[in-house]
Amino acid sequence: MENRRKFGKSALAVIGIIYLILGSVFLVLGLSLLLAVPGDGRMIGGIFAGIGGIFALLGIIFLLVERRKNRQALRLLEGGRYIEGEIADFQINYNVSLNNRHPMIAVVRYADINGVVHVFRSRNIYQYLDPSLIGKTVKVYVEDDSFQKYYVDMSEALSQTIEH
Could you tell me the pTM of the whole model? Predict the structure, then answer.
């Protein structure tokens, strides 16, 4: 079975793309004003170029952070080391809204051999989550026993739901 998963665009990636586009437009406009217009136009060009540079830089940083998260998830999937956790709950992520709908996050619990309960949260899920999924087991890919770096793989549980 192939471990390549398709990761959707997160809010950070969308903001990064928007910031990068707007920053690039402002940067080009500002540099054009700096070179073409004498006098006060140079100051306006400098302001536009400065603001554009800041926005473009923020957009690049946001996109790099998102790329790093996706690469980490792929690395964990390719490593193949996972534990099986039980879906305990679904929570609405009110911090993100797409077409006036909020994504859901699956809360997955895992009890280790010492009886310590570990709680993991999935990425944003924009698909309908049926309450009957609570109690099902899903794979949580982990890097090591500290469980600091993990990826909750909801693809098997979500493959049973088809939206029309």
Answer: 0.74
